[in-house]
Structures are given as structure tokens and as C-alpha cells.
């Protein structure tokens, strides 16, 4: 018997809490079971950046956990999940994941996701990057994580901030095997005047 899809969502203290919140909304719309953990700094960022209360956010998940509960179900590889999304992912959380420093449930759940060879997507929110950040991204990638900075796609011609948020979240969920029909996908160059010398030459 196939069990329903199950995704862990982590919200850390980086700017961009709305990314994790929107992911929870979309996953709920698709009937996917979600397990949520918010770091202490993540709670502060939600209060700073959004009009959501913590109760509003936790109500979007099937089940939520305290970040201090390192004995929670999602801390064990025997608890079956289909993948984990950390949105947003702070550099501190990235560092914990890259170095397997499981001091809280968010990092522990991510570490377990990698050791069980399940998909882990990290929406790293930091810019500009120094060499230490880049090394941490490489370490996490070598251990199996997918580092996906939430970069806007301009080929979709976004009209609002919400358009940018949605496309980023949809792409992240794509990587977890959750395909959102509303996503606008690249379908090739639009028609243009090939005689314009300022446009790229095709086929040569």
C-alpha cells in the first residue's frame, strides 16, 4: 500500500519567512502531509516580516514540532518522508547541516534526510557571499543537499512580489517531486526578428 506524500518543512531565521509559509499553503492545497519545525530565530523573523502569528503558520501544517524537541518523529530515519524543504535557510542553519552539527530539530531533521538519501532542498538566503559561505554550500551539496537560492525568474515577467514568491516556491517543490500545475515553465525563445544584430545568433 502506498502511503500519502509526506514533506518536512523547516523555517529558519533568515529573511524570507514568507517562502516557507507559502510552501505550506501550496502543499496543503495539494493534500500533502506536512511536518513543520520553526527555529527560534525563524519565529522572530515571521513576527518581523509578516502579519502571520506563529499559530497561523503552524495551523497550515499537518503536525508541528518545537525546535528543541530533538526526539521528535522527524529526527529519526525510520520515520518515512519524501523529502524536506528549508525555506528560508540561514547561513547558520546551512553551517549546521553542512557540518552535521545537530544542535536543534531543524538541523537534525535535515541531517537525517541526507543520511537516508532523501531529497533535501535549501533555499539559502544570503548575499553577497564570501568564501566561507561557498565552502558550506559545497559541503552540503557533497552530502546530498540541493542548495537553491531563491532567485527570481524574469522570463515569467512577474508583476508582483507574490508572483516572484510563487514561482520560487513552485520550483523548489518541483525538486521534491511536487508538481504545481500553475507554474509557468520555460518553453523556448519567443519569436523575434533574426535580422536584429543585437540579438543572439542561433545555430552558429
From TrEMBL:
It comes from the Bacteria. Keywords: Flavoprotein, FMN, Prenyltransferase, Transferase. It holds the Pfam family Flavoprotein. Residues 6-168 form the Flavoprotein domain. The keyword Repeat does not apply. FMN binds at residues 13-15, 39, 90-93, 125. Dimethylallyl phosphate binds at residues 155, 171. It catalyses: dimethylallyl phosphate + FMNH2 = prenylated FMNH2 + phosphate. The keyword Membrane does not apply. Its EC number is 2.5.1.129. Gene3D superfamilies: Flavin prenyltransferase-like (3.40.50.1950). PANTHER family: FLAVIN PRENYLTRANSFERASE, FLAVIN PRENYLTRANSFERASE PAD1, MITOCHONDRIAL. Belongs to the UbiX/PAD1 family. Flavin prenyltransferase that catalyzes the synthesis of the prenylated FMN cofactor (prenyl-FMN) for 4-hydroxy-3-polyprenylbenzoic acid decarboxylase UbiD. The prenyltransferase is metal-independent and links a dimethylallyl moiety from dimethylallyl monophosphate (DMAP) to the flavin N5 and C6 atoms of FMN. This is Flavin prenyltransferase UbiX. It comes from Rhodococcus globerulus.
Amino acid at each position: 500500500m502506498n502511503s500519502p506524500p509526506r514533506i518536512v518543512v523547516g523555517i529558519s531565521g533568515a529573511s524570507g519567512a514568507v517562502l516557507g509559509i507559502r510552501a505550506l499553503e501550496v502543499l496543503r492545497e495539494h493534500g500533502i502531509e506536512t511536518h513543520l519545525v520553526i527555529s527560534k530565530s525563524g519565529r522572530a523573523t515571521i513576527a518581523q516580516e509578516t502579519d502571520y502569528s506563529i499559530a497561523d503558520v503552524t495551523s497550515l501544517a499537518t503536525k508541528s514540532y518545537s525546535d528543541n524537541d530533538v526526539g521528535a518523529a522527524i529526527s529519526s530515519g525510520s520515520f518515512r518522508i519524501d523529502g524536506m524543504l528549508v525555506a528560508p535557510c540561514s547561513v547558520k542553519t546551512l553551517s549546521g547541516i553542512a557540518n552535521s552539527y545537530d544542535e536543534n530539530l531543524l538541523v537534525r531533521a535535515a541531517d537525517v534526510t541526507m543520511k537516508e538519501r532523501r531529497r533535501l532542498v535549501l533555499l539559502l538566503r544570503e548575499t553577497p557571499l564570501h568564501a566561507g559561505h561557498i565552502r558550506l554550500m559545497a559541503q552540503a551539496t557533497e552530502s546530498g543537499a540541493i542548495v537553491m537560492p531563491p532567485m527570481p525568474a524574469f522570463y515569467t515577467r512577474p508583476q508582483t512580489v507574490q508572483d516572484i514568491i510563487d514561482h520560487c516556491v513552485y520550483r523548489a517543490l518541483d525538486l521534491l517531486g511536487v508538481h504545481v500545475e500553475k507554474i509557468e515553465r520555460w518553453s523556448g525563445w519567443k519569436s523575434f526578428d533574426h535580422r536584429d544584430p543585437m540579438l543572439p545568433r542561433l545555430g552558429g
